[in-house]
Each structure stands twice: as C-alpha cells, then as structure tokens.
Amino acid sequence: MKEETLCVHGSDDPGDCTGSITVPIYQTATFAHSTVGQGGGYCYSRVQNPTREHLERAVARLEQGDDAMAFSSGMAAIAALMELFRPRDHLLVSDDLYGGSVRLFADISRKNGVECEGVDTTDPAEVERRIRPETRAVFLETPTNPMMQVTDIAAIAAIARAHGLLLIVDNTLLTPYLQKPIPLGADIVVHSGTKYLGGHNDTLAGFLVTARPELTERLRRIYITTGACLSPFDSWLLIRGIKTLAVRMDRAQESALLLAEWLSARPEIERVYYAGLPGHPGYAVSRRQTTGAGALFSFSVDTEERAVRLLERVKLIRFAESLGGTETLVTYPCSQTHADVPREQQERLGITKRLLRLSVGLEAANDLKEDLAQALA
User: Fold this and answer.
1) Rounded to whole angstroms, how far apart are CA atoms 89 and 166?
2) How many C-beta atoms surround the C-beta of residue 126 within 10 A?
3) DSSP at 374
4) Which CATH architecture has domain 245-376?
5) 146, 321 contact by CB (below 8 A)
6) CA 102 to CA 222: how far, in whole Å?
7) What is the pTM of this model?
8) Which of the residues are catalytic?
9) Chain region(s) in the chain for CATH 3.40.640.10
10) Cα 254 off chain centre by
11) Which of 52, 161, 197, 327 has the most CB atoms around it within 10 Å of its CB?
C-alpha cells in the first residue's frame, strides 16, 4: 500500500461494525470487565486506549516498524527512551540536535549517570573512532535541527551493528512519508508528533517506533510504568493530522525549495542550509535515502541587525517556535529553540545571531516570498 493511502487508511478499524469513517474518541480512564479474567482487551487508558491504539498502529505501519508508542510530547518520548540505559552507559549523539534534546542529555541523563557525547554523525569514520567499551547506542537526527546536516543512516547502522549498539534516529523533520530509518537499519525511531504528523500547531505529541519485538517489550514496560501516554482526544487529533500528511508535505516542500532557491540568490543572504539544494554537502546522501528534503531550512543573513529586523517586520509569516504546521513560522534558534546550547557550541555549529530557521507552511509561495522580500528590504 502506498504511503499516501496509508496516511488516510492506516488507522482504520477493520472490526468496526458501525460504519463510522473516523475512529471514535474513547474518552475514558478505565474499562469495565464482565467477569474475573475476561474483558474487552482494555483495562486502563495509561496502559492502552482504543483511540491511541489505532494511531500507534498507523504510525508503526508508516515507519515499517514492529510497534509505535504515542507520548504526550516528543521530549516525553525521548525521556522514556533514555530509561533503556544505566549509569556509566555512554551514547554518541549528533552534535547538532534540537535544543530540548541537548538539555535533556546534559541535565537529566548526566544526573542519572548516562553520558551523551556529541559527535559529527555525518562522518561515519569519526563515529566509529569514538565508540568505547561502554557505548550502548548512537542517537542522531537527519537532517539536523537547525543546521540541516545529513547523516548516512545505512552507514551508521552498519557500524552500530558491528559493535552491538542501538541506532536511534529522530525522524521528526522528514516524517515516514519522506524517510524510513528502520528499513535503512535503525532500531528505534523518534518523533515529535507535534510537528508534521499533527500538522496544525494545535497539540503536543511524541512517538517511539521499534524495529523488533524485543525492543517493543522493553519500551512498552517503560511506557506503561512512567505513564506519559497521549490522551484519547489528542490521539484523535493526530489521526486526523496524519490523514493529510502526504499532501501537506508535498505542498510545503515544493514551496520550501522555491523559497530556498530564491533566498540563495538574494544579496542579503550569506548561506541557505537546505538538503534540497544541489550545493548542500549532504545532497547526494539525502537523495539516496529519502524521497524529499522536507519543508524546513535555515539561512544566515549578512548582519545581526538584519536578522532582528526581519523577525520584527514579517507580517504573514509568524515569528514563533515550532515547525511542521500549516502556518509558516520563522524562528531565531540562538535565543529560542537552542538557547540552552552553550554559546561556544552554537558558534562552532553556525548557530549565530545571523541565523534564522524557516518552517514553510501551506500558504501560496509567492505570498511568502513577498513577505520575506519586504522584511529583508
């Protein structure tokens, strides 16, 4: 079944006898049992809820995984994931990550005795060189947020397998519609479902998708114990969002490429970071392992003053954090999404006060271009 069809029908209930086109919202905390040892398959919504179950099946099918678990946010998903590891374990993580992930690894994981060491995951040889006896996993984003670095998932997967490590891939920016890490060798896929999967800037969600039953069993136990499960109503919103995922991604990335090419030719723009441009260093890898470059990119302007002025002057585009919704958003990574990343690391990665990040939505591309043009003037 094609991805476009799975987006629409992946959450369908084949056992439904009502004819309902949409999955019902089972807004209940608990379920009654007819007698001892017999019930309808559900007991308590923290453990499982029918609405959330349909959502999880849809996401697992899209990612070609064994199972998916829906969390109350992307960070809740990563926090549960980190419960797989013990004190003195060592993880290699992409050195350009979403700021919330950096904060979790630095503040919470370190306190718990788990060391997360940043590494340039676009360089497989460097990843292999950094592996220690206590290394347990590699955690990467591709493309990264906000610098759009592209990692060869299959190459890192081969290294991870050779050393008995888990490979964890945050697939938020491309979604399973454009990139499928599990067939490329990933063991666990992470999503902030708040972004493209939800797609409307109206709810928080997160996912872990597992490649194998044994990982499913371990993470399901953590999931029902720590309890950060997605509510029935929010699960329904995610089901609704995923139904339009394919058409939204196609439209948004079409506009993103147009805007990235247009900005690249502007005299005020120093550089555009977008894997859909042939000049991007990860362009060939991106073309090989994805079916599109997505709808998020970053760009640096010539002065800090111009960056601030653009943020203050945009009208149609909203100056706001987050990404992946129907509205186009511009973000200032150095003081918003990546404010907790140490300044020296920001500078080394290119997260300067001249860098802006654009999440392209569903507005007419020419309207977005006109708004950027007047804000740059």
Assistant:
1) 12
2) 12
3) H
4) Alpha-Beta Complex (3.90)
5) no
6) 22
7) 0.96
8) 46, 98, 170, 195
9) 3-243
10) 20
11) 197
